[in-house]
Design a protein that fits this description.
The protein is an alpha/beta fold and about 425 residues long. It has 19 helices and eleven strands. The protein binds oxidized coenzyme A. Keywords: Transferase.
């Protein structure tokens, strides 16, 4: 069966997390992704957070499936020659170097266009043009500068970063969409173009509802925030809202049976207006269905603490899975707090390929997150990440058409490491 991006060749100059997230998606959709890595060391994450000595880390393997790896010193003249040949033959170049790095290597946008006018050059940077454009940026910097941290956490606590990698993986997702869109446009124009995604912009896009609330503040307090019900005045900026939901429907995380021992024995419950009467029935407060202090959403706003305390009395008598079953039978939205252990063991996620087991020659079997985007005509088969430089010779010969003598000349120049020597290291 063919894949959606069959025939698209990607020159993958990415490292760490944001860029590799993007190119892994393209590889899952069928693109031939050639990851260019520095001889000897490769992507820095190969050696970061290693759980098994001298084995590619899970950090690396889980972000670089279905790719091929070539080692190339792009500051070496022969390395530049190979890079030029790769630019000529690839459709897309993706990079997330620090600002100005590609230019300093001698591969400006103008130069790349000259080599291959159809090339799409896609970049992730920390910031867009402006005062911070030259800064290097990592995940938490993006979360803090993109509005996530100032709006996450509790009102009376510190700003918080979230475990979801919205700066890195989130921006990688944005970039992937930009790339396929540019590929689509190229069908009509025949031209490549630049695609850029800044991590600050990506995080702000994901925090869109908070910029909405910032403007609503000018017209009065945010009545769906618990702070309003608690009679606490709003300041000039959108406050942290604890576990309040962003959509205006009151919601809280509530304790379930076993919470004293299990840090994840909790469930998120939403008191959505259309199911209010059913909630009253489930918790045994039938009088609240008609009582003027509880019957309507505006009346409930100032009583949410009392209401959720009462619902929690009920949830504490059940496990989070029992609560999920009972509430869902009545279409009352809720979400058990699932631990990573529970997710890793979840058989339905295994069945859909969202959690996959992958075999690796030096690591053995490990779990990864598969492709969360399912295409009916382009199913994803998750293949292990490449060893450093595993495909160097194959790419020089098959993609660039180099003879054995030419490949040997490239190795001798120090621009690449022959795969056999790399394996010995
Ligand atoms: N051959 C030769 N040199 C290479 C090379 C290769 N194959 N690959 C990289 N290099 C060189 C670059 O040319 C650069 O050299 P100069 O500084 O002399 O021009 C050098 O390696 C460092 O590149 P860098 O600035 O990208 O790397 P860093 O470790 O200093 O910074 C990071 C890392 C992530 C902060 C930076 O790349 C960055 O800000 N990227 C954009 C934002 C981003 O994606 N952040 C998310 C990171 S987590 O996903």
């Amino acid at each position: 069966m063919t894949k959606a991006l069959d025939g698209v060749r990607v020159l993958d100059f990415t490292h760490v997390q944001s860029g590799p997230t993007c190119t892994q998606l393209l590889a899952w959709f069928g693109a031939d992704v050639i990851k260019v890595e520095r001889p000897g060391s490769g992507d820095i994450t190969r050696g970061q957070l290693q759980d098994i000595p001298k084995v590619d880390s899970l950090y690396f393997t889980m972000l670089n499936h279905n790719k091929r790896s070539i080692t190339l010193d792009t500051k070496n003249p022969k390395g530049k020659e190979v890079l030029t040949a790769l630019i000529r033959t690839c459709d897309v170049l993706v990079e997330n170097f620090g600002p100005g790095v590609l230019d300093r290597m001698g591969f400006t946008w103008e130069k790349i266009q000259e080599i291959n006018p159809r090339m799409i050059v896609a970049s992730i940077k920390g910031f867009g043009p402006g005062p911070y454009e030259d800064c290097k940026v990592y995940e938490n910097v993006a979360q803090c500068t993109g509005g996530a941290a100032s709006t996450t956490g509790f009102r009376d606590g510190l700003p918080l970063v979230t475990g979801a990698q919205i700066g890195d993986s989130g921006t990688g997702l944005h970039l992937a969409l930009g790339i396929v869109t540019a590929l689509y446009q190229r069908h009509h124009t025949g031209r490549g173009q630049r695609v850029t995604a800044a991590m600050q912009d990506g995080v702000l896009n994901l925090c869109r509802v908070k910029l909405r609330d910032q403007q609503r503040l000018a017209h009065g307090p945010l009545k769906e925030y618990s702070q309003f019900g608690e009679g606490i005045e709003f300041g000039e900026a959108v406050p942290r809202a604890g576990n309040d939901s962003g959509g205006g429907q009151p919601g809280r995380i509530l304790k379930c049976k076993g919470w004293e021992q299990d840090p994840n024995a909790y469930i998120y419950v939403i008191t959505q207006a259309p199911v209010w009467e059913k909630i009253c029935d489930v918790i045994g407060e039938t009088g609240w269905k008609t009582h003027p202090d509880y019957a309507t959403p505006p009346a409930r706003l100032s009583r949410l603490n009392e209401i959720f305390a009462r619902i929690e009395q009920w949830t504490m008598t059940k496990t989070k899975f029992e609560v999920m079953e009972i509430l869902n039978a009545d279409d009352i939205p809720c979400g058990p707090i699932l631990s990573m252990k529970e997710l890793a063991e979840d058989q339905s996620l295994r069945a859909t390929g969202t959690i996959v087991e992958v075999d690796h020659p030096t690591r053995g079997k490990y779990l990864s997150v598969g492709n969360p985007i399912k295409l009916s005509d382009s199913p994803t088969e998750v293949k292990r990440s490449p060893l450093l430089g595993e495909h160097t010779d194959e790419i020089l010969r098959d993609v660039l058409g180099y003879s054995d003598a030419h490949v040997a000349e490239i190795h001798d120049s120090g621009a690449t490491t022959p795969p056999r020597k790399q394996a010995a290291e």
